[in-house]
Please model this.
Amino acid sequence: MKRESLEFDVVIIGAGPAGLSAACRLGQLAEEKGRDINVCLVEKGADVGSHILSGAVFETRALDELFPDWKERGAPVRVLVEKDSFCWLFNEHVGLNVPRLLVPKVMRNSGNYVVSLGRLCQWLGEQAEALGCNIFSSSSATDILYDQKGDVVGVVTGDVGLAADDTEKPNYQAGYELRAPYVIFAEGCRGSLGKKLERHFRLRADADPQHYGIGFKEIWSVDPKKHDPGRIVHTFGWPLDNSTEGGGFLYHAENTEVYLGFIVALNYQNPHLNPYKEFQRWKLHPQICSVLRDGTRVSYGARAVNKGGFQSLPKFVVPGAVMVGCEAGFLNGAKIKGSHTAMKTGMLAAEAVFSGLQDSDCQDRELFQYAEGVRTSWVWEELYRARNFSPALTKFGTVFGAAWVFLEHNIFQGKVPFTIHNKKHDHESLKVANQIPKINYPDSDEKISFDVLSSVFFSNTNHEEDQPCHLKLTDPSIPINQNLPKFNEPAQRYCPAGVYEIVTDSLGATRFQINSQNCIHCKVCDIKDPEMNINWVPPEGGGGPNYTGM
Model:
C-alpha cells in the first residue's frame, strides 16, 4: 500500500517513562549543542499517561540525573515514604509484620516516594514538548520498516476507519510511514513491535525466556482518619500457596488516596487459579480491608509486568534501533521497580542516538555506544545483583525463596558466585485441569471486593466497536478442541477484564467468545495461553483504558 511518509531524526514508540525520558534527553542535548533535532514520539493512548499503570513507589535516581531541579519544576513527586513495613499473611485472618532486620535490604524504601506514574508521565510529556518533541497520541505503531539491508528505518502507524470485516468505512484513513535514521522502542512490557524485533533479529538466542506477572491496581479514597501519607505495606503469603509467587501492596498517597494492588507470577501451575479473584479476596484480609472499609473505589486497572531480570535480557541493539525500559526487560524484580531503570535506559539511548546523528552519513547504524552505556551503568549493576531473585522464588517456593533473598542481599550483598536460571516459559507451566482441585472463591460483597465487569467500568475502557478484533487467534479451533478439555480454557480466568468466555447455546454446543471491547491492554493472554494461540496487536489508536492518575 502506498502511504504518506514523514521524515524525522528520531522516532520513539511509547510515551512511558523510558520513551519520555529519551525524548527529554534528546531535547536537552540539542539545546546544549545548538542543533535542531526533529523527534517524533508515538503513543497509542488517547493522551500521555492514559495507558500508564504502576504501583508506584518511585526511586528518583534517574529523575535526579535528568532534571536535577525537578522539585522546582513542579514534578508530581511529593509523598516521601515515611513508614515501610513487610507483612507475611499466614491465612485469611492472621498476618505478621516482618522485623526490619529480616527484610532484604534491596526491598527497603527509605528515600523513595509514593507517586502516580501516570501523572509523572504527563509531567514528563510537558517537559518533552517544551524541549521540542512532537507527541502523536492516539496513534498505534503497528509494523516495522526495514531497508534493503534489513536495517530498521521506521514504523507504520495503524489505519483508522476499518470495519470489523476489514472493509473501509467512510472515515477511513491509511496509516503513515514514520521514517528516521534511528527508532527507539519503548512500548513497555510485551510490546507488540518488540516481539517482532526479537523474532526478526533472533535477539533472545542467548537469553533465558522472559518471565512475567500480572499486576492489578485500584485507587481508593479512604476515611481521613485511616489515611497515613507516606506509609507503605507489602505483603506475601495468603491467598497464594507456597508454589505460586506473588504478593500485595498498599501505599498511602496524597489527598486521602491509597494505591493498592496485587501481583501474581504467570508461571502459576493451577489452571483453575483466577488472578483477579485472588486480588479481590486478598483485599478482604483484615490488614487491608481495615483501611478500605467506608472508603470509595476510584479506579481499576491491570497490566503484565516482566520479572525475568538479568538472565532474561535480550540483545537490545539492532541496526537502526534500540529497545529501552520494560520493552527489553530492565525491571528490577527484587526492588519491584522498573520506572527508574526505564528512565535511565531511555536517557542512555538518547545519548547514543544523538551521538550517531552527529555523523552526517549516520554510519553507526548499530548503536554499540548504547549497549556499552547500559553495561557500564548502575542499571546493569542493579540487575546483576538482583539476578537470582525471581528464579530463586520459582525454584525454592515463596518461603524458602524469601529466605534465600535475605541471605543473598543482606549477607552476600548480591555477590554470590553463581547464577540461577529459569529456562521454562510461563505458558508451559499449567497442569492438567482434572488433576488439580478447583478453587472456591467467595462471592463479591460489592463493598470491598467486586465482580470483574464493574471493575472494567472503573478503567474507563472504550474501543471503536466496529473495527477489526485486535486479539488474533492463530487457530480458532484450539480454545474449544484443546484448551477447554485439557485446561478448562484458562483464558476465562487469567484475563482481568472478562474478554474471553466459553458460551454454550441452547443445543449444548460451545464456542469461544472474544469481547474485545473490554480489553484493558494487559497482554496477559499473549503470554499465558498454553498453546501461544493468542496474538495481541494494537487496536485503532486511542482505544483501550483511560486511566486516571494510575
About this structure: The CA atoms of residues 159 and 175 lie 4 Å apart.
